Amino acid sequence: MIEEPVATTEEAPVTPVSGRRRRIDLWVLLGYLTLAVLVTIQLWIDPNGRVLAGNDDDHGVFLAVLAHAERVVFDGADLFWNDRLNAPVGVNMMANTSIFALSLPLAPITHFFGAGVSVAVLLTAGLAGTAFAWYWVLSRHLVGSRLAAWIGGAWCGFAPTMVSHANGHVNFVNQYVVPFIVWQVLRLREPGRTVRGGVILGLLIVLQCFINEETLLFTALALGVFVLAYTVLRPREVAEVWRRFTAGLAVAAATSFALLAYPLWYQFFGPGNYHGQPFSPSDYVTDLASLVFFARQSLAGYGALTREMSVSATEDNTFFGPAGLVMIIVATVMLWRSVAARSAAIAGLVLLLMSMGPELRVFGHDTGIPLPFGLISHVPVIDLVSVTRFAMVPATVAGVLLALAADRIRQYPPRRRRWFWIGMVLALVPLIPKPIPVVAGDPMPPFLTEGIWRRYVPEGRTLVTVPLPEVTTGRTGMRWVTLSNFDYATPRGYFMGPADPPHDDTGSWRAPVRFTSDLLWRVREYGWRPTLTEADREKITADLVYWRTAVVVLIPNGRNVAVQRATLVDALGEPQFVGGVEIWDMRKLPVPPAE
């Protein structure tokens, strides 16, 4: 179903040209890697001491999954269950973005150098690796020009959406398996590839599932629309290959199902599972105006303007710029006679429309114009996706189309070639990525770094930091426990789990609210100094018992810390100053029986 195929590497003879090709490939890889380092350079300066400013919450999540993998490898912890976060309940790691295919191989780096270093490695390798993977597939199978393949790889690896997600989403940055999945699916039409191709595809699906399931879903939807469009446009050609194509898909499905059956059962039906998201599909959608403006991390980007059209610093999923959008349209027109390119463009357009959600939004304002996504917004699995991320597909399709057009332009007259390359420069230069911003994280106190905490926290008990580890308000406590590789357990945390089991299994970013967590949250947020009654103190004690608390640690820096301290003194008495922090020794509290 792909027209005008070029020779694969297996078909190419081993000649001096092959050696030159390998040298070019090496320089391309080094170039991508250099650009990736420049994008992440501010984090590399102090990876364990700095936090991604664009999304420090999700930075903490990936520190957590890397620290959990370190415990799995070095301590034999349960792969799918984390009992050190959200104690005493725990967290279903399959129901969270646990990137097992990445976190487990990096466990030695996490163990010896810290989870922060592993995050920096994965962000850098993800950007460069995704770019090079697309370059490899394009140069071996789709284009004859190395320059065209380089442009396509650079766009797919460093497009605004990729750099945006590098502000915290390690899972979305590592997309180097995707181009090989796409190519293996398309090769299933070839004779003799039903079993071998199906098994290879199935294994790639498993690998991608353990990197990021959302990306796998987007890829499957895009390929589905592509195949459907191609079938409509070339029914006779499809009729000749559909049996072996579908047979190959069946082999891939059987292979991946055999390996993923239990993990997926655990994710959707195991302890700590949830259904749906804690937000409406209309909350996070692609703004139509974002197609012609620049992302905040692009060279021409202006953050204050971008924020009007984007839901967060990690979700600038379009932002092609005016010249970029024009060149995407030009490339599509140039390639329109190619049914494969036309089908790819249709797939990108469909996913772009899906990313706009149930109602059209323009420059931050809902227009009231209904869109087709409203008809499928509650379909299972679809309802687990942040809708704007569907736009990552058209961003990648745009890179492929630009590469194909850059290859095709060689056949055009000199004047048209000149205008084409002027347009490419005007499109690409403003999108050159800027280094992702970081901030300094609260340093870990000697109480933790010197292991003093071990004297206070016996096995089966927890260390409770205040503010409690929560999304948006307890980042430091979450970061401290993960940089300690979960040597101690802590209550609550930022993770996905059921909102209020067993009454409500809707997905939530936090543990069910308790009296003490709500009280301390309001104290921290508003500087409100509560007047505690004896009944309040009994509730606080009950929560500390429930959390199996051995010691309470006040994080010394942060918002309204003086009022937080006064509240803790009122509830628990005067603290001790140990290892650079104030602590309340709670070992005298009883330990409830294990559930």
UniProtKB/TrEMBL annotation:
The keyword Transmembrane helix applies. The chain crosses the membrane at residues 26-45, 112-137, 194-211, 217-233, 245-265, 319-336, 343-364, 384-406, 418-436. The keyword Transmembrane applies. Keywords: Membrane, Transmembrane, Transmembrane helix. This is Glycosyl transferase.
